[in-house]
Amino acid sequence: MTDSSLLLEIKTGNIYNECCLETMARTPDNFIDLIITSPPYDAMRKYSGNDFIQFEDIAHELFRILKPGGVAVWVIGDQTIQGNETGTSFRHALYFKDEVGFNLFDTMIYVKPPRGAVGNNKTYWQSFEYMFVLSKGNPKTINLIQDRNNKESRKGDVSNKRLFNGIQKPVKRKGYGKTGRRTNVWEFMTGKNHSTKDKIAFEHPAIFPEQLAHDHIITWSNPDDIIYDPFMGSGTTAKMAAMTGRNWIGSEICADYCRVANERLSNAM
To answer: Is the dihedral of CA 48, 15, 201, 77 positive or negative?
Structure first.
């Protein structure tokens, strides 16, 4: 149990140059509204600093510091080794669900155009990662993005529904507009001038698109909420949180990546 007086030791608007377990050890229970991160996994990239993550300890700490109704977005894929996918993504999702207590609220897909040799060259080209949306109870904030074009708009009307006994019952149907809620498969262009226009960000080997972070932030949080990224990397989550009027906290074990993230933040403000 974390003493609430430790709140004084954790300040928003800071990237802590340390392992996320150290940051979370000083964070009160039920303090964070939204977590967005893409952890290092399966040694798929060469990162500066310690790549090893103590996943199980981190998973339990993320649950503890998240507010009831808070959401954690875990962006992850799998490495293919000699024709055999690791399955790390599924193991993480099931551990969060079965051992930690999170709800697996949605399994979303992040689609990106194929770039380079990815996955198994004898299968169809690998071009996606999972975005597991995990919630502590029922999500307290859901602002679904409405940008999917419907074929046509329709006003509400009344139609008949035949019941089991054969009687027809009038049923009022709701109408819908020209756009509807987005699907849970999100596609983003990646690479320079797509993931971000910040050239310095590419000093990190595995950034995710700013739009991905932005869209999750506006979906699962409200202005002035607190966003946390335990693997801050190049600072994308913090930048998008700041630009959407949210508070943010980050952990990043590599000092060079902290420098990159802080420079991106200073340029964005």
So the answer is: positive
Each residue's pLDDT, cut to its tens digit, for the chain (269 residues) gives 444 444 457 999 999 999 999 999 999 999 999 999 999 876 644 444 554 568 999 999 999 999 999 999 999 988 888 888 889 999 999 999 999 999 999 999 999 876 655 556 778 888 889 999 999 999 999 999 998 887 776 666 677 787 888 788 887 777 667 778 899 999 887 667 666 665 666 656 677 888 999 999 999 999 999 999 999 988 999 999 999 999 999 999 999 999 988 888 887 76
User: Are 72 and 64 in contact, with CB atoms under 8 Å apart?
Assistant: no
- Our measurement of the distance from residue 10's CA atom to the centroid of its chain's CA atoms, rounded to an integer in Å, reads 22
| pTM > 0.85 | no
